[in-house]
Amino acid sequence: MGRSVERVRKALQFREPERLPRSELWINSNVLEWAQMEDTLKGHLTLRNQLGMDLLFLPLSATETYRSSQGYRYFSLEDVQEALKQDELFVAVIIDGPFQRIVEQRGLITVLSALKQNREIFFSEYRREAEIVRDLIRQCLELGVELFVIADDLAYERSTYFSPKDAEDFLVPFYSESTESIHAGGAFALFHSCGNIEALVPKLLICAIDGLAAWQARCFDVISVRREHPSGLILLGGIEPQYLDSEILSEEQQREFHLFVREISKGGGFMLCSSSGLYKPELVDRIHLLYRLTEDRPEEREHMGEHVTSKKISSLYGRLAGPKEEKDD
């Protein structure tokens, strides 16, 4: 068993590894192109190895597709099977939940209107999509997958899309049955949604969801939620847009990030990733630096000075694929 796999398993078991496990759930095709890699399983494996990631996340679909709206691909079950042959990386899958699948097909406004005006039609469609998701989960368990992220965007920045009763009617049955199957297969089930999902957390815990993945810290107080459930809620996240998108990563931001990660990772059950994924090439150097900051003590970073620019980051850690060949004038 590789060290990366051991780190992840320790975190999932609320034991503290020698350093935080880290990965990204989604990687845009442009990032791989920039790194001179193909958007294939081999390309993703190479990029993750070079960035020192411990997990390989594969967004999964029944058929291999490309999500043009987000710029990343879905992998197939055959890809998952091939990836599981890797000993040095922990392989996990991301499966869109039933609500997410319906929204992708019909649009959010149409789906919310259907939920309000034609509940029976909505529930019929939801049950059909839920069966597809459960089948994917079953096949992944047969292959030996140990970690699932069910991705269902269910909330605005301030509230969920629907009432607590709606959540009880269609979310709780699906998630309860899915997590029961996942746990019976010896695996873990995490949940991802953008927006403020704080009101959903109690219901997710009733469904025996093991934790949250790539949450948005600006939308709800995840540290308070973690304190309420110190040994029963795995968290995968911690890198927010302000640390990725700012042109200058100030010393204050570095310390803020360090303190946030230190606080939220106490007692294990925490793995590091961004809430957004790597959606543009410029983020690769920054994410590499943020990974490194979780390894260093603050006093060891004093030499970095007050500000670290993207150019400075590149000079410190280098372009992953090396410089492109210069063309003759």
What does this molecule look like?
- This protein is of the alpha/beta class.
- It has one domain: TIM Barrel.
- 46% of the residues lie in helices and 14% in strands.
- The protein has helices at residues 3-12, 29-34, 41-51, 77-83, 98-106, 108-117, 119-143, 164-184, 201-206, 222-228, 241-245, 251-264, 283-293, 310-317, and strands spanning 55-60, 66-67, 72-73, 90-96, 147-151, 188-192, 211-213, 234-239, 248-250, 270-274, 307-309.
- The strands form three sheets. The chain has a seven-stranded parallel β-sheet. A two-stranded antiparallel sheet has the order 2-3.
Task: Name the features.
329 residues; alpha/beta; TIM Barrel; 7-stranded parallel beta sheet; two-stranded antiparallel sheet; 14 helices
Number of helices, counting only DSSP H or I runs of 4 residues or more: 14
Low confidence ranges: 298-329
Q: Do you know the CATH architecture?
A: Alpha-Beta Barrel
CATH class: Alpha Beta
Strand element count? 11
Overall pLDDT metric? 85
Order of helices and strands: HHHEEEHEHHHEHEHEHEHEHEHEH
Q: State the oligomer.
A: single chain
CATH fold group:
TIM Barrel
- Kindly report the spatial arrangement of strands forming the biggest sheet: 1-4-5-6-7-8-10
Rg for CA atoms: 20 Å
Percent of residues in beta strands = 5-15%
